[in-house]
Amino acid sequence: MNEKILHSAMNMKWRYFKQKLFFGAVRLSALVITVALLGILAYILANGFRAITWEFLTQPPTDSMTKGGIMPAIVGTLYLTVGAILVALPLGVVSAIFLTEYAKQGALIRIIRIGVNCLAGVPSVVFGLFGLGFFVVFLKFGSSILAGALTLGILILPTIIGAAEEALKAVPQTFREASLALGVSKWNTIFRIVLPSALPGILTGAILGVGRAAGETAPIMFTAAAFFTAVLPKSIFDEVMALPYHIYVLATAGTHIEETRPLQYGTVLVLIALVLGIDLIAIIMRSMLRRNKRW
Amino acid sequence: MRKFFQQLILGGFCLAIGAGTTFAENIVIKGSTTVLPIAQVTLEAYMKANPGAKISLSGGGSGEGIKALIDGSTDIANSSREIKRAEVELAKSKGVEPKEIAVAIDAIVPIVNPKNRVKDLTIDQLSQIYQGKITNWKEVGGDDLQIVVISRDSSSGTFEAWGEMVLNKAKVTPKAQMQASNGAIVQAISKNRYAIGYIGIGYINKTVKPLTVNGVAASAKTALSKEFPVSRFLYMYTNGEPKGETAKFIKFILSSAGQNLVAKEGFVPLPADKKGKK
Amino acid sequence: MKNRKHSFTKHTKEIAIRDLFGFFAFLSVLLLGLILVFLFREGLPLFKQISVADFLFGTAWYPTYDPPEYGIWPLIVGSLAVTFFACIIAVPLGLLSAVYIAEIAPAGIKEILKSIIELLAGLPSVVLGFFGMVIVGPWLQETFDLPTGLNIMNAAVMLAIMAIPTISSISEDALYAVPREFKEASYALGATKYETIIRVIIPAALSGVSTAVILGMARAIGETMVVLMVAGGAAAIPEGIFDAVRPMTASIAAEMGEAPFRSGHYHALFATGIVLFLITLAFNLIADYISNRFRETGSGTL
Description:
The complex is a heterotrimer.
Chain A: H1 2-48, H2 54-58, E1 61-62, E2 67-68, H3 71-102, H4 107-121, H5 124-138, H6 145-170, H7 173-181, H8 186-215, H9 218-221, E3 228-229, H10 243-253, H11 261-292
Antiparallel strand pairs in A: 1-2
Chain B: H1 2-20, E1 26-31, H2 36-49, E2 54-60, H3 62-71, E3 76-79, H4 85-93, E4 98-112, E5 120-121, H5 123-131, E6 148-152, H6 157-165, E7 177-179, H7 182-191, E8 195-200, E9 209-210, E10 212-213, H8 220-224, E11 231-239, H9 244-254, H10 256-264
Helix pairs in contact in B: 3-4
Chain C: H1 2-43, H2 46-49, H3 52-57, E1 61-62, E2 69-70, H4 73-104, H5 107-122, H6 125-144, H7 152-177, H8 180-188, H9 193-204, H10 206-222, H11 225-230, H12 248-255, H13 264-293
């Protein structure tokens, strides 16, 4: 009898030991991931912050890019992402409204969902190929802000649709029911009741989409980006410089790679600050929304 | 809510109106990364002298530049090789008449890491190394180390020129690591003591060691006289005779001020008799 | 009378709006179809010059020589190699961190870790490519005395960083969805937390977890900038983990600019795009299928 108790006590010890090992591994992986992110950020910050001056942010590059700033790239990225959102947001919100409010379960809605999911899975370089073949050559837009923004817009469309759908679904059914019971038409219900409630969530999704569009390189490589533009773009048919493309060309295709290294770090820092800043805003907005929901 | 949509539509409208404005007098230059520093430094000087001019510049390789010329998406194609016959035919079939303008002379110099003992290689040795037939430095007088072959990728005119003049059109070993630009090769070689690469003479700096070929060192003199076996012209191609702003810019490059800038970048300016169009 | 007319136009308006919106929603499908059409339109002409088998399994990629050779097998192997090794790193890390968030972490740490993972997901790929090229590459080269620091290992590490957030967040959702009753029953039977996780929760969430892994793999194989800058660029079949490779995405990005419009090379690159698209499509469809078919048993089945 004592043997049995001793045996099961030792068994427990072994089981708890296994648990300790496992939990250790689990904590270790969380630690590794954290260290990876912070390490990368710290390294870029340490090497890049020296390059960040007012001049860097507001002046164009000079002397074969070894001096000066990255202002045209910042402006170019701005134009491209604004263009992308102008394309994706209306389209995405309308699609999401259809999927949540109007569509009946059935073949149509399943096809659309599969379509959106597959679109989300298309590699970014394939978007670049498509943008090149369709917008730049076939529609004759040329390498331009227009082609780049359209390509980026399609890229972030699934993201916007997903976020908008989630936001719309989160609006309680009682809102809709009350509105309809009062005799308001379906469209007016959506437009005046559901949409405004979902707007913060949609905005969060839009912000995440902007972050994604700002950081992409492959879609704009052949559709919009130039190594160096002398002046800021004056029409949507001009090429632009862009932050991610600038990093890529300075680091691999530039004329004075070693000399421009500090500027590369600086550009990377600006891009990271931009994208992560945008993402942080979205994350904070989302957690504020979650906390404020009274229903 | 309504106001939000109003502003959105207004904004979209403005963007569309902006699109209607005609594209301003703009020179688009694309192509060879070898010619890139020449284009960059001359366009900076040109724009200082002509504040109204708008020039946008891209790299990508000679192949990209010529393709862009054929597709009509660039005014000037920088190229470090001659245009291929197939490209000329393709261009003509699209109504494009490529016009070849030599702007400088260049030497393609094999480089190694400064720690490498080897100082000179024959064309034949270079060819064998790049075909993957010689794989160890000790076979050519260096240390017992594996040779890492670094090359430009296929869009590069430098790659094509190297392939013609050194390899005699033989295939580069698939194990060769492809880099996208002269600058990238310099970077790779400076960090890698096993590696060998080749770059335009204008890109040589202190971080890499140039080799002599067949005993001849690359210089402006030996490139001009063709004593250095791997030398070539650098070109700009336009669609037909250059016109307008493009013509003015090219004239500037060919002027003595422009050619001085060429020399400053480390390339070889055109001799007086060869200046202008070929 | 007036009322009937009024409600008729109102009703028409409703239907019109619904159909209009439906059309826009369908646009996503149309766009997908358009992409497919374009890929095939520009890629299929290649197969007048070369058979599908030669293209897929040919081992020589020399598109600019005369005569050109368009064998993409080394490119495919390159893509598969970096994806495989990236997953070896990313799956344990992603899964374990998902377990941590879902089951073990205290509330405050949970929120912080989720935000960290989301920020990691937001890192642009060119930044990771830069980091891999400038810091990881030289480090690898010095530490292991390698001929080059730009190789499969480097690409695998950077790709893993990109895949971990995908794997982690989808797994986490799957783990959350496991009904509490399962856990409570397990504890009631005397199992430790560890045993519960390993023998009850994870198996119950297996379909969600496998979806996560497959989508992570799809992410890794479709990634362009990281492998362009970091995988080395040699279009040869690798012999070791420290060899340089040239995945399909890197090849397309590197060569697209120079292939003259509608030349053989151009078609070959689009054909490579088709292969890439089909592979990622297959991954996504499989993941969709698994998550729909084998939906985790909910409490309703108890």
